[in-house]
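Hi R.,

Here's the chain you asked about this morning:
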Amino acid sequence: MLDRLKIFLAAALFGFIMCADAAADVRLKDIVNIEGVRGNDLVGYGLVVGLDGTGDGVRNSPYTEEALSSLLERLGVNVQGEDFRPRNVAAVVVTATLPPFARAGSQIDITVSAIGDANNLLGGTLIMTPLHAADGEIYAVAQGPVLASGFSADGDGASVTFGSPTSGSIPQGARVEREINFDFAAMQSLRLALRAPDFTTAARIESAINGAFGGNIATVLDPGTIEVAMADAPLKPVHLIGRIENLRITPEQKARIVIDQKSGTVVLGADVRISRFAVTQGNLTITVRETPVVSQPNPFSRNGETIVLPDTTITVDQQSERRIGLVEENVALSDLIEGLNALGVGPRELIDILKSVKAAGALHAELVLM
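And the predicted structure, written out as tokens:
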């Protein structure tokens, strides 16, 4: 029964491997970025009001009181010299990304994060907050109710926190006030930037573009950049980019093994190759048990003392069966998985074996540890 189960698991693994080995055509928009077409980071400082006594403490966060006083003065309320110590206000940093080609009046999502000692932002409302870019200019204004993820509860002797109640978001919470101009019509050339630079993939992209439009409008500058001459293209820039980003090619992939040591997950690429090596795998368990013994004096003893005597038991359990495997030359991924499954190797043991094989120089792949 166990042998049949191993055969079934191996067959399932081989089905996955065959899918991984099959060449996959992908669109250019999924593997390249167009130079100049990108988002811009925005940041601002604001106040969240309406909290149920979970805001900043004025003594620990005096900047919150100053910001609130300044806000109220702009609204015509004078609080100078007053005993002003609210607990329903929190100072926050607001972040957002201005997407490319965003127009004035369009709305974008924002993230709100407390910077003081506020307990949570549940039920709070962000007051009008200008968002600045790296050049110091205001590009958007944010305001709205905060959606905090998580909760916090505490009592006299214990407290519990789930998620991050001091951080939240506001969908469509900022309105764009300034545009970033980008004129495609004035561009003489366009550059495509590969997200994973590779000589082979760049050459395939060049061939695909030139084959689709004729001539030599695409030129590889380096493994990560392909330049397209807009003046020689038969289409307008917008239509040209729309055609280019939907062209399909087969990207080249490096042989790579990704290991997540926390969860024990191992992902192996289809091009992984193993040279000839031998592996032995066995278990050795050492158990140390402390059972202290209490020794008490005799009854009615005047000078006797109660002492604790140590009693240590050490047990060594070595697995009698040691599994030894011999891997032949130039083994493919499917053969490696089949051999490790035959040895009964689990995910944790597989991680140790792959590290040792890499150290021995027999693993021809990039080993990525997470």
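Residues 40-176 form one domain.

Let me know if you need anything else.
M.
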